[in-house]
UniProtKB/TrEMBL annotation:
Biological source species: Blastococcus goldschmidtiae
Designated gene of the protein: coaBC
Residue intervals passing through the bilayer: none
Enzyme Commission number(s): 4.1.1.36, 6.3.2.5
Pathway named in the protein's UniProt entry: Cofactor biosynthesis; coenzyme A biosynthesis; CoA from (R)-pantothenate: step 2/5; Cofactor biosynthesis; coenzyme A biosynthesis; CoA from (R)-pantothenate: step 3/5
Cofactor entry: FMN; Mg(2+)
Cofactor annotation remark: Binds 1 FMN per subunit.
Domain DNA/pantothenate metabolism flavoprotein C-terminal: 10-224
Full-sequence portion shown in this chain: 176 to 407 of 407
Residues bound to CTP: D103, K113, P131, D132, I133, L134, F150, K168, K172
Reactions catalysed according to its record: (R)-4'-phosphopantothenate + L-cysteine + CTP = N-[(R)-4-phosphopantothenoyl]-L-cysteine + CMP + diphosphate + H(+); N-[(R)-4-phosphopantothenoyl]-L-cysteine + H(+) = (R)-4'-phosphopantetheine + CO2
Protein name: Coenzyme A biosynthesis bifunctional protein CoaBC
Record-stated family: In the N-terminal section; belongs to the HFCD (homo-oligomeric flavin containing Cys decarboxylase) superfamily. In the C-terminal section; belongs to the PPC synthetase family.
Source species taxonomy: Bacteria, Bacillati, Actinomycetota, Actinomycetes, Geodermatophilales
Alphabetized GO MF terms: phosphopantothenate--cysteine ligase activity; phosphopantothenoylcysteine decarboxylase activity
Amino acid sequence: GGASALAHDLTGRRVVISAGGTREPLDPVRYLGNRSSGKQGWALARVAAARGAEVVLVAANVELPAPFGVRVVHVGTAEELRAAVHAEATDADVVVMSAAVADFRPASVAEAKMKKDSAAEPDSVPLVRNPDILAELVAKRSPGQLVVGFAAETGDADADVLTHARAKLARKGCDLLVVNDVSGDLVFGQADNAVVVLAADGESTEIPRGPKDGVAAGIWTVVASRLTPRYS
Ligand code: CTP
Ligand code: CA
């Protein structure tokens, strides 16, 4: 047992990890974005590479330096992230969607910078739905490939965080869902994190609050336990 026995449990595995947050342009200088820093995705990539995996990181608007031994593909929008993830997911043993993908994008992108009319109140911005990349990955996954989703949830009047998360796992159809409780600002841009990993078969693994590398290590241990054994 112990860390040394786990050190190379991902040797020979190809993993694709999306990280960061997409930006959906309104005009040449403005976008709709979100607060995802990419740090948890970076930690996942670093730890997977250290444990022997061949890692591709599809990074949406993350400025961090490439983790050692990891190939980084930079993207901006949800459509760019979609194309890159699908291209890289062929032959992957594991695809982890830790990126925050904008649910909607502006219906059109202005070619020139939008100017304000000093007299009138602004128009509303029409939005259209972005494709659900995780659902697409689930629909096209190859035998033995594991698809892992992330969910940042808050409890509300309807249900608590884990109830929302279980419903999301069922809805998405992925193998594992990594759940973050984001009530109260403990996640975005922070060095520490805490998650629960829910599996489609009902298993759940709590990974206690700690540095994002430690949380990443816990997530990979759950993933590795579910990979189809290889006898080569
Ligand atoms: N995701 C995706 N494509 C989208 C939206 C989300 O691939 N267009 C992925 C995320 O990368 C994440 C998972 O789906 O792994 C869950 O994202 P989340 O935003 O929590 O789920 P939604 O179905 O968009 O639900 P919500 O209404 O709560 O935002
Ligand atoms: Ca969403």
